[in-house]
Every structure is written in C-alpha cells, then in structure tokens.
Amino acid sequence: MGQTDLSRPLGRDGGWADAEPPCGNAAFAELPVRPYDVLTLAVCRALPPLWSLCRLRRAAAMMRHYLRADGTPVRIDAEELLALPAVRAAADEQLAHWRAEALDRWRAGPRAPAAYPADSGWRDVVITHRISADWWLALRCVEFRLTGTVRVDGDGAAAVDYRFALHKGWNFDRGGSELGVPFAPFARLHETGLAREFTVTGEAFGHA
Length: 208
What we know:
Elements: E1 3-4, H1 35-53, H2 57-68, E2 74-75, H3 78-82, H4 85-108, E3 114-119, E4 123-126, H5 133-138, E5 141-152, E6 158-170, E7 177-178, E8 181-182, H6 184-191, E9 198-207
Parallel strand pairs: 1-3, 2-9
Antiparallel strand pairs: 3-5, 4-5, 5-6, 6-9, 7-8
C-alpha cells in the first residue's frame, strides 16, 4: 500500500496564491456619461453581429455579456480552452514539472509506491490572434491553476490526475492597448455604467 507525501505540494514555485485582483479602473457607474461614450457603445453593439457572421461566436458572446451590464459571472468550457496549443503547452509544462519533482522525492525515499499532492498556483497564458482569433477576442489572456496528485508506483512509473481551473477578470484595462487600439474608451463603458466587467471561470479534469 502506498504512502501519501504530506510536505509542501509539488510545483508551486513561481505560482500565485490568489487569482489576479480586479484592474484599477474606476468603479461601475462612477463616472458621468459623455457623448463619446455613447459613440463607443454604438461601435461595441455593432461588433457581436459582425463577429457572429465571421464565426467568432465566443468573442461575440463575451462582448454581448459586457454590454448587458449585469456583471454576472460567465462559465466556459475549459476543455475547449485547454485544447488550444498555447494553453495545452503551458499545462503540460506544469505536469512535466510535477512528475520530475515527484520522481526526485521518490528516489530519495524507500522507493515504495507513493502519492504526492501537487499545485501549480495561479499562472497566466496569453492567447494571440495567430493561435485563435475567436479566443483572442474573447479572452486574450487567462489565468489557470492545476491541482492534483502524482502517483509513483514501485517501478518508478508516474501518473497524474489533475484539475485545470481557469479565471479571467473580463475588462478593458484603461492602461492597456492591443494592435495600437487603446482600451480606455471601452473601459469607460464600465466606469459610466453602460457596460459592466465580469468574471470568467471554468474547469476541466484529466489524467496524464
């Protein structure tokens, strides 16, 4: 019968204990509406139908939710996100790190079957338009956290059961920009109450 290692979880180095806090935009509906805010709103309302025609359904859904201005969380299919090469590579890097750490501990012990809890902490991964135009417009960057257990048998073979969790504070950071387009006018939609920031979450489970 194997033993469970109760020391510090594997793979935590470099990860954050908590997901990223909200950005430093003004609070919802804190600022007065200006004429150019109404113009920005009109532009944003035209985007979801256009994106839908271009088969950018995830991007269209996120923008519609922002413009709905109720701020309710959105849950997405993390399996679909995990299938993206950049996200899969980031997750696989952590899983490989877990296995290497587990085997180091196993070799230093009695080399009996053992289980090692693992936790990557929160980390981020950027999704570019070259990877997926739809996911780029929908999320652009997300935080993920892997938690699970690495089991090593008596022959030194390692297997991992893991949970992949994602978190995204969906907003336009007024200090940011993309492709030369500043985010400040879009951030003002939240700050004036014409739209509202929200949180995106999701989870997936796997064995490797």
